[in-house]
Amino acid sequence: MQVLHDAPLAPLTTFRLGGPATRLVTATTDAEVVEVVREADATGTPLLIVGGGSNLVIGDKGFDGTALRIATRGFEATGTRLELAAGEVWTDAVARTVEAGLAGVECLAGIPGSAGATPIQNVGAYGQEVSSTITEVIAYDRTAGETVTLTNAECAFSYRHSRFKADPERYVVLRVRFGLEDAGGLSGPLRYAETARALGVEPGDRVPLGDARDTVLKLRAGKGMVLDPEDHDTWSAGSFFTNPILDDAQFAAFHARVRERLGEGVEPPAYPAGDGHTKTSAAWLIDKAGFTKGYGTGPARISTKHTLALTNRGEATTEDLLALAREVVAGVREAFGITLVNEPVTVGVSL
Length: 351
Known about the structure:
The protein is of the alpha+beta class. The chain contains nine helices and 18 strands. It has helices at 30-43, 90-99, 118-121, 163-166, 193-199, 209-222, 248-262, 282-288, 318-336; strands at 2-8, 20-27, 47-50, 56-58, 63-70, 75-78, 81-85, 124-125, 128-129, 134-141, 146-151, 171-179, 245-247, 271-272, 277-279, 300-302, 310-312, 345-347.
């Protein structure tokens, strides 16, 4: 294990923001991860888990406690079964599944972060979510003081949510197991219209795995959603807000606000989200509330490529970022009566 004191955390996040940790420990085995967690719990030391840093907003004052960076490695494919160590770089793991001819996560290419973070957020994009392929999650249960194996059902997955996110202080993910598909080199059925259009096929069709992955990477890059150190549009956490899910009464009120503000002929995005619920687009809400691509004059601005990404233009502080986020939340609430919810985890700060 590597142990550093008064260690900068900003370089470990995709925002490149945040102050130092009192202590930073980098663990490369599951046993080391468990050892550090047990030590923190035994001594009452605050603990921050850091994976790929793509979903963290750390306060400018940093973190007064132990930051545990999980850098474990492990990619084991047996037939259509896959087990990943929590510290595996997610986008690299996706590339390896494509090379192995395994379908199920190819449309999740280019998502920054670590494999261990994917079940926490139930990571999803372009018509796929990890909840559809995760079979088990191996985690250290801090309450029980032991390593446990949770089935898919026990993970309680929902849209950008899980048991792990609901109880963030309890579990530390160690390994994730997936059940993928051998479709003869083809992708899973394409469920996202934009991807299908880009490939010249219909939703529900299958295409060569490599074509699906490459197309998603191109779509993401066009929106600043693939990490590039030279492109400040990628100095972000990707989508900063989740897409709102509204019940029937809430959607009717929202629809009325849209007509009032934008005119009778304007229809907001609407997608089925379970019995009596409809999902709408956070990006659409932000744009129609007046926060267009590139909005802002300070060091934190909306991406020039995608309205859902808040970005650090190079000299921002976390407070700069939060000020912009609060402005967007207030503007959308005033325009449409919907309160956006941040997707990244905040550390030492809040909206």
